[in-house]
Amino acid sequence: MTAPLPNTGSQILQQYPRMTQASICDLIAANRPDLRPYEKLRAHLHTHPELSEQEAATAATVASHLGNLDAYTIHEGIGGHGLAAVLENGAGRTILLRADMDALPVEEKTGLPFASRVRMRDYDGIVKPVMHACGHDIHVTCLLAAAELMVRIRDAWKGTLILVFQPNEERGAGAQRMVDNGLYDRVPIPDIILGQHVFPMRSGKLGSRIGIMLAASDSLSVTLYGRGGHASQPHNTIDPVVMAASTVMRLQTIVSREVDPSGLAVVTVGSMQAGQTENIITDKAELKINIRTIDCETRERVVAAVKRIVKAECDASGAEQAPLIATSSSFPVTVNDETITKALQEAFGQYFGDDFDPDLPRVNGSEDFSVLGTAIGKPCSFWMIGGTDPELWDDAEKKGRLGEEIPVNHSSFFAPVMQPTIRIGTDALATAALTLFQEASR
Question: Which of 40, 69, 121, 182 has its CA 20 to 30 A from that of 335?
Fold first, then answer.
């Protein structure tokens, strides 16, 4: 009878002792693949981004690359364009490494020679510019490079390595759809789930933290209904533009007046659309609202407050039709398992030295990465790698203008440099996997 798999990070590490850090450093230094082809791959991915649920060409590129390694069993079409690859290499832990593939509806302004000029029809039917403004091209590149590295050193470790290339992260549904579509019927149940994200830090740096790593996120699409008419006769209309403006202003009071100051909440109205011209009062306005929180109680309170204010402002304006409020995406809080993250922090500290920060401040961005673990009750750990040009970072830091001059994720100017970003991301994934795999000589 097979013994049950351990479910906590502590139990897993007790069952399989870790490799020595010296052996991991030597293995990576001696066997890291030539990263120049991966720089070309990153440029290709960046030039050809694809929106959520439309990542067909990206997935095909990934599958082709993995197929050329002639080592992984590849499973395609999971939860849309999701892909998983498995390398079985004897008895030991099962480790899952994940990268996301989708891009954003953002017009690129980086000026890179391989900048995107792609336009695609988004889920709302509107054709939009598309850009890898969150660095998922870097994520895919690093995981593919790590995939080759792990094949090169397969005689030095034992276990099963799973690679997951996830679609539809930007809308918060990709991980759950892969799970619901049978991801864990096609690949072994992992003991540990690991992932990383490129971030506006100095390239060459990386960091993590124990506990809450990323905030939860809820996005709401709101439609306010008025009564349209001529701009010269506002008394015969119910103006949804005024209704929307009042709603936006009132929403700003939630964080300052309804949330405990010791907690965290962010409410952002990222889009407000109404009307087409100046001499017509339109009959509806649309708001897109994003909420960030780090605990369930605050999350419920803020979402409820947003809905209450929207409805109250419609009543105050005399709206004849109730507003439409729909949830467009929802991301969980990302929590790093204490035992697994401590083991990785020790390994990263020894491998990267002072370039690794074991107490990175909590990031208020969001990810659906942890769904891959919570869906099966397994521990997760997630870390950040820097992507900002070192000279640009150092200059902005010297002037005290990091917040003003360093482009962040989702910006039209977000442009992680090739190196050392790809090398650090590749080494981090391999170091994490090797640290947690069974020592080959045991």
Answer: 182
